[in-house]
Amino acid sequence: MGTFKPLNTKVFTKAEPELSDEAIYWKKFTAPAILKDFGPIDYIDVNPNDPYHFAVTCSVRVQIFNPVTKAVYKSLTRFKETAYGGKFRHDGKLICAGGDEAEVKLFDVGSKNLLRIFKGHDGPVHRCFFCINNSQLFSCSDDKSAAVWDIASEKIVAQYRDHTDYVRAGAVSPVSADIVVSGSYDKKVMMFDTRTNEVALTLDHGAPVESVIFNKTGSIIISAGGTDICFWDALAGGKLLSRITPHHKTITCLAMASDGLRLLSGGLDKRVRVTDMTDLQPAHVLNYPSPILSIGIESNDKVLAVGMVDGLVSVSRKIEEDGKGKTPRIRYTLREWRKREQKLREFEPLQEADTTFTEKERQMMSNIDRYLRSYRYSKALDVAMAMYNTKRKAESVVTLLQELIRRKGLATALAGKDDHEIAKILKFFSKHIGNFEYMPTLIDATNTLIDIYGEEINDMPMALDACNNLLSTIHDEEQLTVKLLELQGAMEMLKIASDSHKLAPNSKNDYSVTTEEFPSTL
Amino acid sequence: MITTQEEFKLKRVAGGSITEHRPLFSSDSLYIYIIWDDGVRQYSLKTGKFVQKLETPNEVVELLSDPEDKNLLHGFTSAGELLTWKQDTGFFENKKTLALKLSSEKKIVGLHLSSHKNAVVVVEDTEKQIQKFIKYNLKTNEKENLTVIGQVGKFSSSVGSSDKDEYLATIHIYNLRVVNLNSSEKFKHSVNHEWGSFTCVRSHPKQNLIATCDQSGRILIWRDVMSFQAIKTLHHWHKLPVSDVVFTGQASSFYSGGFETVIVKWWLDGSQSRDFISNTGASIKNMAISPDNKYVAVGMADNAIHIVNSQMDIEQTIQHVSTHFEDRPGVKPIVSRMSFDPRTKALVVNGRSGHVQFYSVENQSYMFLVDVVGENYLNQQRGLDMVNTEVVLTAMSSDGNWFATVEERDDGLSHLECRLKFWSWDWQHKFKLRTSIENPHQGRVNDIAFQPVLGDRVNRLISTGMNAKFITWCKSEEDSLWTLEFVGKLDNLIPRPVEFSSDTSLFAVGFESTLSVWETSAMEMKSCLTRPDASEQINFVKFGNDASSRYLVAASNSKIVIWDLIPLQVVKIIGLKVVWLAANPMNDHMAAFTEGGELVVFSPSEKAPICRRSILSGKKVSSALYWPHDEVQSNAVEWQRLAQLYVMTDNQEIFTFVTKNEENRDLFNPVEFPNNEGKTATPLAAFVAKQTLSQVKKLEPLPMWKQQVNSYQGSCLKMMCETPSHMLPPMQMLVGDLVNEYLTAQSSSNEKPQEFFKAPEPMEVIEGSSTDSESEEEGSKVRQKRRKVKTKKLRPVEESTLQSVAKLKFDWVEMLFDAVEITSDEE
Fold first, then answer.
1. Nearest chain B residue (CA) to A515
2. Does A515 contact chain B (CB < 8 Å)?
3. What number is the ipTM of this complex?
4. Do the domain assignments include residue A16?
């Protein structure tokens, strides 16, 4: 009451989905820092211990970064050829990595010393892991075998040659030192038991397996390959629990997050999808600039590092909420600051007055609204066009035009403009008249403009030019509409044909039902 | 014919203007008196709440405070009675009937009281269209006709006083006339005709000051009017006619308001400075000032009275049913249909332009407005027809969580603006806009309906539009966005009404004259119901509830057709010019309102109507709904025990039907029994409970229609009546049977008694049903005609001819048709 309602430009803006709790959670990460490396980021592993250093395996080295400073903490460079799969031991003191040299190398993180070299594979080793007992290593190799090594003696404990193609994925059970899992390009996931030295389970994933992990309790094996993620029951003989397809391109990596409650999957579609492990429903999406090859996340989401094909690593940290992290500095806008200052200086009356009056707060409004309010339509249009020229906000111009049509003030607003201004407005019309949402307004506005300047436009060279442009744009739009209508007609014919075929047995109902995309263009 | 003979009356629940007359402040400036309905109501300025009602025998036309005793309040009625109350207690003091002896064409419209208790009665001559004035001495009862005239209008005369004299100022087109009430001296002042005629006059009660306003928006302040050389000063800001103006007590400033929706405060110190309250949303009708000059009461066209303080802030608003006032000359404002909000127990009706109001029927009070369009109200401008966006349709989901509105702006020059908006109930007790869909149907939206919320919590809405499609909108799981789910159509017929069945498994869409029934889960059309003679557009579709859940009722301009959904047959046709059809959610009753103001309550499964009465004659029904009672009301009208029927007329007055018992007490008394939420279950809960009870109903006897249909068993006629024309076998196969049947029918004359509900079958065939709008009378004529045909005895010659025709083979007809087809193909 008594207040001027400002123009609502939201009408022409796309609806944004509401923030779910999950989205708010994933937004509570710091802005990602981008690190650049030379080749594709093969593997990222986060040290489970504070301060959560993360190891990035890329080209011929394994680099360990500090997540706070984003600086290189240690660089392990004792590789002659490309290194793969650098993985921390559970205490974070040792690191193992495979490579094209067909060896698994074991380093001491603190001193960068090469402690052990495990030789015995005939092909490059892409993944290697410390078993839960910390005395054994598990490696997956392109020689179609997976092997378990004794760290102390550098000897093979067991080697499994059951796969028929490269073994590029693997995992060790988080609960048993004897259970290891490998995933291969032969589309199979196999579970080996070192006690029996036999294949305990063979699971058919259906696509070359890129990544395999266990859930937190070790009861579910999660395999990724192609665009599918499969959930297998590791205890009930490898029953397929569920299959989800969160990505539309190949999934390259998996990681458990939020203490086992969320599954992160990265794919070549440049997205990391967060899946809720309780109901396997998609929970959130994180977007990245390039196809994703590797994800490293601390088990409680303290550090998230994502590696991409072009050597980018995006690192972000979770903001602490319980006062441990930085408290965000309050940023005041000028207006808020003034208000605050005024409040501090506010006069406190000592006695109760008969009547007290509070100062009226002035309504803040944009220049466009201010001119609209005082019926200065031409000025309002000038401001909106100037704003469009600097900020490219078409919706505010269209909203204003619609409001002027509503107020019957468009003719007033458009009258008395010079050649240059008219040309600008016409250019705006021809650029946006194809937009489905703007079209009705712009058609009405164009009609009004032609009504006003129809006579004089021949004396306005720039406007005439713009007018011809608009004409050809409209012509193109018409052509497009005709083509789309033809297409729609053809499609509807097919649809009706299929419907009538379906209804043939009880053809007493003579009707047709069509579903179509809404809103149809033009 | 009419089964229920219970006595019931129409009772107004809400509506009616509170701003027709100027309000009056109490002498202590704590209360304000307002004339509404059949009495004077007192409201508190501090809280804006209703305090008490002062009963009056006749309609009050003027409220006045006594110039001598400040504690007295006078009300002047149209019957010439001067009523007196005490302001502090509200007690009625006395009644004095003024001996005026007026002729029949004269009507009392007002009264002025000067400070020396000189009364001037304003009388309107309805024949000559002028106002006349009678000076009346209240002490001696002497009366004297004053020889001045005034133009017809609320504020075309005013009484003021100078130092010693009292005068009456009147306006008549271009003239301001002033009469000295003591000496009867007269003065006339004229203005330039270019300015347009006067609209109102107001004199200062104590100083020699008069303000007049004119059509062009100018305000003239006249000083020293009791001379022929009056001094006038011009105040011009308004662009449109000014409705009313009021001086402050010391005449240092005055307030004015008109059609601009702006309240203006002027200063009379020569500075020409002004203060404004703009965008009040409605034009201003009248103004009154409190005795202590702190407040001004401004009566608005949307049935609100704003209390404005001297700092030009609206401190309080007294609002009754927010009316959608007529702002475009000659264009009747749109009144959307009523909905029922189970959460706030409010009737949802559109309020002032672009707003939807929630009106509590229990407390009989306005609750709040929701700004639907979010645009500034555009007042009319000279030479321009300003069209505001209006709310045309509303729908409330059955659980009250979701609210949908359709708004529209069509000025005939630019593209039609149409928006479908979804609002959700917020914990802060406001409706929050969640989704707004621009132009959902590339044209007007005809109807919207929510799917009733049962256990599965599916939120779905169906809208039908002029693009010959209906669209189902569904709320997405994770957020509150509504998105398109399915688009359905039937040829290129335009769908209008849409309605869900109570169990939500089906919904019906009326496509012009064809009724289609769809399955909700599969979004598939189950059946398409067309009557052979149907050419009228269907306006209302309702599924039966409870025992009648197998029936589907469709109402067009001239008749109600009841379909049975199991055999897909017409059960009966009722010839009524239906303007609104409402279904009772608690049982299987339906209420139809006809053009002539008739109310017909019926049940689809029963033969005779439950109630049929012409009770609304002279009123135009714009919508009606059943309001479920929390518990069975034993006092209520028989058919209203489970749910109360409310009717809204086109001028936004809401009525209901009450028995004599109920009339004496208020339907819902807000003072003694405040709305006790904790005690009673929601209406929806009552509805659910009712359903479980009704499942163990005893078997009902076979309804009449069934018996009637059975008597036609095996008849060819019956098949022709009940089968849609496109499903009938070729005509040559039917001819033989039909003639045979006609002959056998001669022997048995099964004449049926005349009934209110007529069986549709025989009539259709014999009449050939070519009439588009068959009224009730026409229908009865047809029936008589049919009877004549049936009872007519055939002569033996005719009979033998028919017999021979029956034996004939008609294969040649078929061959002939084939031959014709072949030849045409060849061409």
1. B487
2. yes
3. 0.75
4. no
Residue A306 included in any domain: yes
In chain B, residues with a C-beta closer than 8 Å to the C-beta of A276 are: none
Query: What is the pTM for the complete model shown?
Result: 0.69
The number of folded domains in chain A is 2
Amino acid, single-letter form, for residue B261: T
Distance from CA of B281 to the nearest CA of A (A): 7
Please indicate, yes or no, if residue A491 is contained in any of the structural domains.
Answer: no
Q: In sequence order, what are the residues at sequence separation of 6 or more whose Cβ sits closer than 8 angstroms to the Cβ of residue B521?
A: B505
Which residue range(s) make up the domain with A412?
357-479
Residue A509 falls inside a structural domain: no
Three-state DSSP at A216 gives coil
The model's pLDDT over A217-256, given as tens digits with 9 standing for 90+, comes to: 889 999 999 999 999 998 888 889 999 998 989 999 999 9
pLDDT tens profile B39-62: 899 999 988 888 888 888 888 999
CATH number at residue A399: 1.25.40
Closest alpha carbon to B552 in B560, B586, B543: B543
- Give pLDDT, residue A299: 85
Q: Does A4 touch chain B (CB under 8 A)?
A: yes
Minimum CA–CA partner of A283 in chain B: B478
Contact A15 B386 (CB under 8 A): no
Q: Minimum mean pLDDT among A65-69, A273-277, A494-498: which range?
A: A494-498
Do A361 and A316 share a domain, yes or no? no
Given B278, B378, B726, which is nearest A406 (Cβ)?
Answer: B378
Window from A286-295, B597-606, B730-739 with minimum mean pLDDT: B730-739
Task: State what percent of residues in chain B have pLDDT above 70.
Answer: 82
Q: Are residues A269 and A392 in the same domain?
A: no
Question: Is residue A365 located within the same domain as residue A411?
Answer: yes
Residue B15's SS3 state is coil
Q: Do residues A64 and A192 both lie within one domain?
A: yes
CB interface of A with B, residues 409-448, below 8 Å: 437, 440-441, 443-444
Same domain, A163 and A312: yes
Q: Are A446 and A438 in contact (CB under 8 A)?
A: no
From chain A, the residues in CB contact with B479 under 8 A are 17-18, 20
Q: d(Cα B776, Cα B758) in Å, to the nearest integer?
A: 11
Handedness of CA B438, B440, B441, B444 (dihedral sign): negative
Domain endpoint, select from A263, A297, A320:
A320
Tens-digit pLDDT profile for residues B530-564: 887 777 889 999 998 878 888 999 998 888 999 99
A451 chain-B contacts, CB cut-off 8 A: none
Nearest chain B Cα distance for residue A200, angstroms: 41
Q: Would an 8 Å CB–CB cutoff place A22 in contact with chain B? A: no
A:B CB pairs within 8 Å: 89
User: Is it the case that residue B488 has pLDDT exceeding 50?
Assistant: yes
Cβ-Cβ contacts under 8 Å, B389 against chain A: 406
Shortest Cα–Cα distance, B414 to chain A (Å): 6
Q: Do A511 and B524 touch (CB under 8 A)?
A: no
Four-point Cα dihedral A51, A55, A56, A57, nearest 10: 180
Query: Which of A290, A302, A293 lies closest to A58 in space, CA to CA?
Result: A293
- pLDDT at B758 exceeding the cut of 50: no
Contact of A507 with chain B, judged by CB distance below 8 Å, is answered with: no
Per-residue pLDDT at A99: 92
Q: Residue A507: closest CA among chain B residues belongs to which residue?
A: B727
Q: How confident is the model at residue B220 (pLDDT cuts 50, 70, 90)?
A: very high
A216 and A130 fall within a common domain: yes
The SS3 of residue A348 is coil
Indicate whether B234 pLDDT > 70: yes
What are the residues whose beta carbons fall under 8 Å from the beta carbon of A303, sequence distance 6 or more?
Answer: A46, A52, A54, A67, A296, A297, A315, A316, A317, A318
Residues A219 and A284 in one domain: yes
Beta bridge partners of B35: B40
Residues A243 and A173 in one domain: yes
Instruction: Give per-residue pLDDT as tens, A418-434.
Output: 899 999 999 999 999 98
